[in-house]
Amino acid sequence: MRGYRTFGLAVGLALLAGSAALAQPTDAQLKARVAAVLAKTPLIDGHNDFPWEVRERWAQKTGAFDFKSDLSHTPPVPGGEGQGGLMTDIPRLHAGGVGGQFWSVYIPVSITGPAAVQTTIEQIDIVKRLAARYPADLGMAYTADDIVRLHKEGRVASLVGVEGGHQIDDSMAVLRAYYALGARYMTLAHATDNAFADSATDNPKHHGLTPFGKAVVGEMNRLGMLVDLSHVSPDVMRQALEVSQAPVIFSHSGARAVDEHPRNVPDDVLEMVAKNHGVVMANFATNYVNHDRAVWNADQAAERARTNTPPFGGLYVGQPEKAAAYMKAWEAAHPKPRVTIPMVADHIEHIAKVCGHDCVGLGSDFDGIPDTPEGLEGVDKYPALLVELARRGWSDEDLGKLAGGNLLRALRETEVAAKRLQAAGLASEATLAELDGPAKR
Fold first, then answer.
1. How far is CA 217 from CA 102, 165, 177, 189, 395, in A?
2. Has this prediction a pTM greater than 0.70?
3. Is residue 18 included in any domain, yes or no?
4. Is 6 domain-assigned?
5. What is the pLDDT of residues 23-41, one digit of tens each?
6. pLDDT 10s digits, 309-339
7. Using an 8 Å Cβ cutoff, are 161 and 183 in contact?
8. Are residues 249 and 331 in the same domain?
9. Catalytic amino acids?
10. What is the DSSP string of 200-227?
11. pLDDT of 245-268, one tens digit each?
């Protein structure tokens, strides 16, 4: 009898295993689920740097290229910041199911003062001219309702995000002017500290926000402009979350517990984001996604500096052929670590684990990064990431929240808070000198 029981048990287990295998959804079924989600909910990406590429490659002229053509093989600008083929164009936006895009009106931190204001306005103008040139595919959006309407019309809702506090030239009036021009978020700092907020990638100057910086957060709340905490130091993250009266966003950041990069968000901050009803929009930059790639990038940069650092440093300064040969040999001996879609999904799952499915979103950083994870090469690839999460057991409801539902909810709550704050008081007339004094300038 024992033998028959053992045989029967084996057969039963085999049948169960076979049933489980049959129950696993196919890629086609997962893709169909994702398509259905994106038909109902606009996929909203928090950060795309294409406007700066327009400046770099085409001298700000939106008529110098065809945005409805495939731009993936566009050559780089000699001496410019471009990396070759672009990650964004209208056909791929539609193919990726994109319903809303925050276009970054980034400018380098080296541009300051009145020049920063002019350059920012020129970048906002690029976004508006693109929308005007392609009205069948793009439409300017200023509210959550605008995003929903444009998505139903089959157009990509185009929003403006200012990527650095230095861009307001320490002026509340400039901040308000940006809002009037259409900006719906501002990143409090970028690559370096500014006069009122510390950067994640600089040595701390203020150890968080200055009094003027906190006033800037308050005025953004009053206006209805989302406070963006990507690029800022953990102290700025915590202090902004403490004072903000509306949900904050991280327009393009990952989880620091998954990749301990200074641009990513610590777990204690994620817990604060949950209480704030904010959204952390996962970044696709390879060194923010994978720690091994971040180390490799640092090692590569160090070797390049050691090899060729004009005017006097470097093993092969003045000998570009030898420098190039050395780097080719180094890279052959030190293969670049792979970065993949599942690694991005790991960040999203960690964020959801710590602060819930209500606080995750997507913030690719397309056309602002030199490379991408395998399978996420452009704006047409978002569904592949959602399929990976569906394969891991994410429900359609949670996929919709990730795609754009959470950002829509945060924007609506910010709009409600703005109405309340506007009814309670007038615009801030605070100045940097009054609140921080000359020592902080």
1. 20, 11, 15, 12, 35
2. yes
3. no
4. no
5. 688 999 999 999 999 999 9
6. 887 778 999 899 999 999 999 999 999 999 9
7. yes
8. no
9. 47, 49, 163, 190, 231, 252, 365
10. TTS--SSSSB-HHHHHHHHHHHHHTPEE
11. 999 999 999 999 999 999 999 999
